[in-house]
């Protein structure tokens, strides 16, 4: 791509294509916004992983067509993600169609066994998350939610405002 000498071409490709690829992804993120790198939804997570893979492919390209295709595919992914985020924000029906809902794993100190079964979360994983959140007594736990991103949120304290768990089926 740059030099006849193989080793020199490899070094030049690694440096130059990496610089261009990172600059391209940075420009896309600046244009579309930081949400591009979020994992708010399962689709966001897939786009983040896929864009990393495409960037890796771009910097390893040995032909300009492969390099250009990887950069354009990254732009396409970010564009689709942007469109889906806009549509989700404006259409509750669309959001429900493409997005899993959060699952209540614990409520008011009680483990919801059925939710553990449905979500395939082991009780030991639940207790690990409780320890991570510095829960000292199960009675302090107001809710544990398996979020749409796969993260587990532990809500504990004296009271729980209903708005925080709005839309989550409770036992």
Number of strands: 4
Spell out the helices and strands N to C. HHHHEEHHEE
Strand order, largest beta sheet: 2-1-3-4
| Unreliable residue stretches | none
Put simply, the count of helices is: 6
Report what the structure shows.
56% of the residues lie in helices and 11% in strands. With 171 residues, it is an alpha+beta fold. A hairpin with a 5-residue loop joins strand 3 (141-146) and strand 4. Helix 2 packs antiparallel against helix 3 (64-90). The protein is elongated and about 70 Å long.
Annotation keywords:
171 residues, 6 helices, alpha+beta, elongated, 11% strand, 4 strands, four-stranded antiparallel sheet
Secondary-structure map with pairings?
Blueprint: H1 6-32, H2 42-59, H3 64-90, H4 92-98, E1 103-107, E2 110-111, H5 113-119, H6 123-132, E3 141-146, E4 152-156
Antiparallel strand pairs: 1-2, 1-3, 3-4
Short description:
The chain has helices at 6-32, 42-59, 64-90, 92-98, 113-119, 123-132; strands spanning 103-107, 110-111, 141-146, 152-156. With 171 residues, the protein is an alpha+beta fold.
């Amino acid at each position: 791509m740059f030099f006849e000498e193989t080793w020199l071409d490899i070094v030049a490709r690694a440096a130059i294509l990496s610089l261009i690829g990172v600059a391209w992804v940075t420009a896309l993120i600046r244009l579309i916004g930081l949400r591009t790198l979020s994992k708010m939804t399962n689709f966001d997570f897939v786009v983040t992983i896929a864009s990393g893979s495409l960037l890796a492919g771009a910097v390893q390209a040995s032909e300009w067509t492969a390099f250009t295709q990887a950069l354009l595919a990254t732009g396409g992914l970010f564009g689709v993600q942007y469109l889906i985020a806009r549509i989700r924000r404006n259409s509750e029906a669309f959001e429900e169609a493409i997005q899993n809902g959060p699952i209540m794993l614990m409520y008011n100190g009680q483990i919801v066994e059925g939710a553990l079964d449905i979500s395939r979360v082991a009780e030991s994983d639940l207790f690990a998350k409780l320890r991570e959140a510095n829960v000292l007594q199960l009675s302090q736990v107001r809710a544990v939610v398996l979020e749409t991103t796969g993260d587990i949120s532990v809500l504990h304290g004296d009271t729980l405002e209903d708005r925080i768990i709005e839309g989550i089926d409770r036992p």
